[in-house]
Amino acid sequence: MQDKVIYLDNAATSFPKPDAVHEFMGNFYRRCGVNPGRTGCDMAIEAEEMVLATRTKLSALFNASLWANGDKKDPNRLVFTQNATAGLNMILNGTLGSGDHVVTTHLEHNSVIRPINHLVKAGVNATFVKPGSDGLVDPEEIRSAIRGNTKLVVVNHASNVTGVVQDIAAIGVVCKQSGAQFVVDAAQTAGVVPIDMWESDVDFLVFTGHKGLMGPTGIGGICVSDTAEVTTTVWGGTGVKSAEPYHLQEYPFRLEAGTLNVLGIAGLSAGVDWINAVGINSIHRQEMELIELLLQGLTEIDGVTVYSPCQSGNRVAICSICVSGYDPTEVGMFLDVDHNVITRTGLQCAPLVHDLMGTSPRGTVRFSVGPFNTANDIEVALSGVEAVARERRPGKHN
């Protein structure tokens, strides 16, 4: 067994973070870790400037074509939340009411499935569209599911189980033509693949900071298009216009109440800087080379079933497997204890995907590559899977 930990659970959270993220967070918080926008002191002004700069960076990242053409989007429509789950709940609860209809898919994370199920109890109607055998949702299936009372279409940009990336541009056209607001859950793609809200007709892009954006946990947000509408569901202090008896409706205050996670925003800011410096396409290309190496090796091991479409053009660096004769939790434990390889086992908070794949209720072993993984990491992981699979091949045990 080797001493180095091989971390292949980047879909849960990216690790390690760039050194620049740790350094900026520490330096910033020591220098001006105060409440932005609540006072006129120099430290508070610097904190507020950092927050606005981060809104601006993320607005540019998610609306690339607008910014490239000089038609810059209002950065204040980039609002911060605790994470993607909080953002999705804000949109779902702020848009849907009794008698409304929402369209989503069987590829969703529980951060979509559970809020929708609770809303269904309150009188909302929901349709879950199944993907094809290639893991892709047919935009025409979305069109067929949309009704006259459909308010939202919610789609997971990339599956956190198989890594398949949906064609959000094609789905966005359908939503625009049908008059339904389009919500994209970019938890697995923000910072990992290029995203252009404007080109894809996305109304709400929801992201988390601690995965592909290389920031810390506890920070995420929503990028809201200029034409999107959502009702405020959380009310409180905003630091401005304190005499107003009701919560402010202008952005970003419309969806932000209380003190922001300034330290988390600082880390997210540094993470976006690191991504921009290295290049998102360069990062993705490196990760895809490694996941293809992993997929090739896994398919050559007897007893291993790979649950991941092979089209490299529409995927991120995630794949799932089962090993014959083993529960996935056993495989994960052996990889961890005997080979220092960290994976994610179980249903990965996406039970409907596993229902479709036939891997419920035990789930799979998921591998997810990050920007700091190497070819040697993949070789060690493959060696570990081979060792585990060899122990239970036919004839090995009575």
Which SSEs are present, and which pair or pack?
Layout: E1 6-7, H1 19-32, H2 42-62, H3 64-68, E2 78-81, H4 84-95, E3 101-105, H5 110-121, E4 125-129, H6 139-145, E5 150-156, H7 168-178, E6 181-185, H8 197-200, E7 204-208, E8 220-224, H9 262-278, H10 280-299, E9 304-307, E10 318-323, H11 328-339, E11 341-342, E12 344-346, H12 351-357, E13 364-368, H13 375-390
Parallel strand pairs: 1-11, 3-4, 3-5, 5-6, 6-7
Antiparallel strand pairs: 2-8, 7-8, 9-10, 10-13, 12-13
Describe this structure as you would to a colleague:
This protein has 398 residues and is of the alpha/beta class. The chain has two domains: 6-17 and 279-390, Aspartate Aminotransferase, domain 1; 19-278, Aspartate Aminotransferase, domain 2 (3-Layer(aba) Sandwich). Helix content is 40%, strand content 15%. It is built from 13 helices and 13 strands. The chain has helices at residues 19-32, 42-62, 64-68, 84-95, 110-121, 139-145, 168-178, 197-200, 262-278, 280-299, 328-339, 351-357, 375-390; strands spanning 6-7, 78-81, 101-105, 125-129, 150-156, 181-185, 204-208, 220-224, 304-307, 318-323, 341-342, 344-346, 364-368. The strands form three sheets. The protein has a seven-stranded mixed sheet with strand order 2-8-7-6-5-3-4, sandwiched between helices. Helix 8 (197-200) links the parallel strand 6 (181-185) and strand 7. Helix 1 (19-32) runs antiparallel to helix 9 (262-278) and helix 6 (139-145) packs parallel to helix 7 (168-178). The model has no long low-confidence stretch (mean pLDDT 93).
